[in-house]
Amino acid sequence: MKRYLRLHRIFVVQYLKKLMEYKVDFLLGAIGLLITQAIQILFLGIIFSQIPSLIGYTFPQILFIYGFSLIPKSLDHLLTDNLWMVGYRIVRKGEFDKYLTRPINTLFHVVSENFCVDAFGEMLSCILLLGYSIPQLDMPFHWYTIPLALVAVVFATLIYTSLKIMTAAIAFWTKASGHIIHMLYMVNDFSKYPVTIYNKAVQTIITYVIPFAFTAYYPASYFLTGKNPLFCIGGTVIAGTVMFALAVFVWNRGLRAYESVGS
Amino acid sequence: MENMIYAENLRKEFKKIIKEPGLKGSVKSLFHPKKEIVKAVDGISFEVPKGEILGFIGPNGAGKSTVIKMLTGILMPTSGMCRINGKIPQEDRKNYVREIGVVFGQRTQLWWDLALRETYAVLKEIYQVPDDQYQKRMAFLNEVLELDSFITSPVRTLSLGQRMRADIAASLLHSPKVLFLDEPTIGLDVVVKDNIRNAIMEINKEEGTTVILTTHDLADIELLCERIVMIDKGKKVFDGGISELKCNFGDVRTLEFELVNAPDFKLLDYHRRFHLTEDELSAERDGSLACVRFDTAEVSVEDVISYTLSTVHVKDLNIKSVEIEEIIKRLYRREVSL
Amino acid sequence: MSRIKRFFRTYKPFTRAGMQEMIAYRANFICHLIGEIMAAFIMYFVWKAVFLSSDSETFMGFTMEDMVVYIFITFLTGYMTYSDGAFAVGEEIIDGSIAMRMIKPCSFEMCFLFQELGSRLISISMIFVPMVAGVEIYRYAVCGEVRFQIGYFLLYIVSLLLAYMISFYFNVCYGFMAFFFKNLWGTTLIKETLVSFLSGAIIPLAFMPSGLAAVLNILPFASLSYTPVMIYMGMYSTSQILWSFGLQIFWVVVMYGVTKLIWRSAVRHLSVQGG
Questions:
Q1: What is the ipTM score, two decimals?
Q2: pTM for the structure as a whole
Q3: Is B72 part of any domain?
Q4: CATH code of the domain in which B255 resides
């Protein structure tokens, strides 16, 4: 474990060095993500200029849920962006060979090789949203709120990353799966709003099948109301654990099916 | 001697979707994708003793790379097994790859944007090479592969020859017991090729590293390998020493006679004189040269010379010894059956 | 006449290639499509919640029915006018194969255009008809009468074609940005977000402050999505429709001109580089 942390640090340092060469690209990526979020917020702002609350949620509450959804999203984005490349290029071009000839865990190696600082654009929007909404909300606060929040964030990120690992691993069978990861990202957008706006079918899917609702709405609603901690936080922990176990399983099966490319 | 590498009945099958040409074909494959099973490697067995350099040759698409990828643990064999240094690659990959070095000539294993020195520092961590050993190792590799002049440049700026040397050094950083080189001299100029061959030889001699290399450059084989395994269409077609290859496939010689009178060439009729077919002996005229190529199992050098000298006036004579390239070319063309 | 014939004969293979490519990558295409449709459904649910939470039947002049038509027809329009030109041009610039375009006896952007046309033909057959049918069935179910008007629909098709041309040339121009940036990911994200905002795809322009809406209406982005959608919905009067067509044609011409200008300077740039 210690060795892996050390390796991860080395990869990050190397990546940051490389980043200095591509400053402009990084900046544009971060700005792009910031603008994307800003326009979404503007959209919500226009809606709330006409109605006082959206099926019982006030503007600050909606912003809090929205902001909370960006925490696991941006962390995942920051740490595991290379999985996209697994889906799009690394497997298809046979570049995955390299990882298999190294004496460290392939998943760790692939993931830690890249460090996507563009995610700071999302992090910044997330901080602004939470910073703006929290003071306006009367949220219950106890000594355990902060530790629980940390637990929720860790496991919410794990749900996110696990789903990304699974979809990226599909490439081991199909050569490329970038578009499936993309589809997953679109499903993830459902988690930005309270699940109560959706019909039963959608609610069931994003709770029990692709548990994105646990990456944002459920934990966020616990922090908003203090109700249902067992389901909201416990569910996040369970979903995160189950998804991660499943992801590792799928990944390892994928390694066996990997075909490389003829040369 | 103990065997370092042991492969038994290795097979690898791939599924391939066949698409018929044209728009009609695309639509057809949309509804009825035709699948075909391709046997990339079809039951290959061989052994490599410790410290040997084995050449792995065969035409494009013969399955060389697939075998290497199974031996290195990248691909799962469809059936059969291989054991290297007592370990089965697919069973305990992480521990196994610590003891091998792999270079794919077509593709770098280095980090594209990092300076070469940084790349080695990262690899040092990955392979957990202790500091003092790392220093010694770098000094040694530096000496053998002459990395000094470009060790601070980013990998993407290296020339192909530099990159290949860098890649080979990277594969040797952790002192592997077995080195797999997949086309290590591809696309390089003669000087760099020579440099790389010397380095491989030196490492093999100094450290007793077992080396398997695939190549299309037969000079690599003649200069480096004691033994070759030749495969074609996924099957092993030859396994043995180079002298054995020459012996097995006949000792082909070429004699060049420089004629005093070039038109005299038509007086020479070897086929009738020795009762040989065109395959067994070929005679061609090249200016004033008569080039006669034949198998010494069919007719002796002495007989050919004496017949020629007694038939025409000869100014000069040149005996060319057999070249492995010739044999392999014939093998590729399937002139030689096994 | 024979010139036109020759023109089509030159570019027909590109269209076929585009169709083949689409079929070969059908899985990608379907995943992408499903992803995009999901985004439209999220919008649908958000608006449904908005109307549920609102006391009045309309939201800034839009009924729920209007909103549903707006969301899905906007989605369809965006999908139909989406152009890969930027990506194709960018990729060729980065790997240097754009130089090959200059030695071929055909216009470089026409090759892209006709290739894209091939894939568009397939998307039309797979998405266009079901989407329009779905929207109209929904409208019928809600209002109890057929709201579909063939006249507006035909005008929409014309406007859609013009929108596609603007989108195509705009994206080809944008693709030339690859000369300046090694990685187009960040700029593409900015471009796509801004375009979808400025074109009214996220928020109908009618919901924006009137001054801003007036400016946005004139910019080329409204012509990409908002204009065709408004025509489909029958929200525009005859004079507004004529004015919109004029504006769309104007922007097609401008974008075409800019593309030609950039291409000409790019050719010079390349030949200088080549020495």
A1: 0.88
A2: 0.83
A3: yes
A4: 3.30.70
